[in-house]
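Supplementary notes for students who missed Thursday's class. We covered one full example, reproduced here. Read the sequence, then the structure, then the short commentary at the end.
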Amino acid sequence: MTSPPLLLIEDTPSLQLVYQSVLRSAGHTVRCADDAASGLAAFRTLAPPVVLLDLMLPDRDGLDLMGELLTLRPETRVIVITANGSINKAVAAMRAGAHEFLVKPFDEQRFLAAIDNALADTRRGGAAAPPPRAAQAPGDFIGSSAPMAEVYAKIRSVARSMATVFITGESGTGKELCAQAVHDLSNRAGAPFVPLNCGAIPTELLESEVFGHVKGAFTGAIADKPGAAAAADGGTLFLDEICELDLNLQTKLLRFLQTSTIQPVGATRSRKVNVRIVCATNRDPLQEVRRGRFREDLYYRLHVVPIHMPPLRDRSADVVTLAEAALARFAREEGRQFQSLDPDVKALFQRLGWPGNVRQLLNVMRHVVVLNDGPAVTRAMLPAELLSGPEAPRRTAPVPQKSDLPLDGLIGRTLAEIERLVIEETILRHDGSVPKAARMLDVSPSTLYRKMEAWKTRA
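Structure (token representation):
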């Protein structure tokens, strides 16, 4: 018996032909529909295991159609396709039960990987898991402030997708907790979660740590070693401090993301792995791209679903809750009698800036518990450096300051004119070198070339 065909519901004829060709070349049988009505009729007849659904249809909203399809056959895996400007709609689809989403334009490997993952999921059997409730914090998170509620909602929305998650935030904000929560709420929860800190491993060893090596590949390689990517096969690979990757290794990581294949150092053959990538950094990744330290194509490959972890100073409503939870845990571990925080300690904690974020707060509570005993934490028990530390800045509108720059020649001009003057003067001062001017202006050279071409076209 042959398996039922896949169903593609796409109203753009050219895209329908492209998707159909890619699927058939990969050995899939596919039936096409160009609107919601014909798609629903084909769905009732074929009972396909996987539906590829464009959310923008001429006769009906794609989300509404998806709801009806999943009501008729909850075990169906729906992969939604959306335009680049409609990420919010794709996230809404994930909440409503979609298995995966693809953002146009996407490449052939990404497309086929999503199909293979969905088919593998149907073979494991059972109905698609209902979208999880947003009532409580996922994983080991603590706190219910508004910024964290947004983080929790995003984690739940993307967890069951294959989409790459890019977590940003200052050091100590809980980026690995976020990655672990994404894994734990995904269909891969029973498979490995493999974290790898790219900033903690010497550059010359990092390729081996990610992709593995074979015996004799280099001095000291006394046995075959599977890398983190192979160890995470079927599960999630968490690449922490991704911006610390050497540019050469970034190229190999990009190839891995495009082909889903790994080749251990010293090996002559590559092999496929099924890995979901979650990465994190405490830097601004786009700034790293502009400075030439992070590949632009890799950035856009990884930066599919961004999640920003807020600093502790922006979630002051959670500070006391976090401190009390840490106090209870550390008191149990150390055999102390602590039960609460004094009111003035609570007030102080909410005023502090916490530059080290949650990690700093945990260290403070551990310090208190190890060196003191309860029942209440008082101000006198706190580390001296904490009491002299900065308080969280009050959020007020910035007051314009008088500048020392010679602005007389700029006042009265449009912003576009000023931008052109600054760019041209910077290029002139660097002897016509666009790359040098780009470094000075902290943008990529391609940005300057595009602007210069636009000026030439308008001239």
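Commentary. The chain has four domains: 6-123, 146-308, 312-387, 415-458. The domain at 415-458 is CATH 1.10.10 (Arc Repressor Mutant, subunit A). If anything here is unclear, bring it to office hours.
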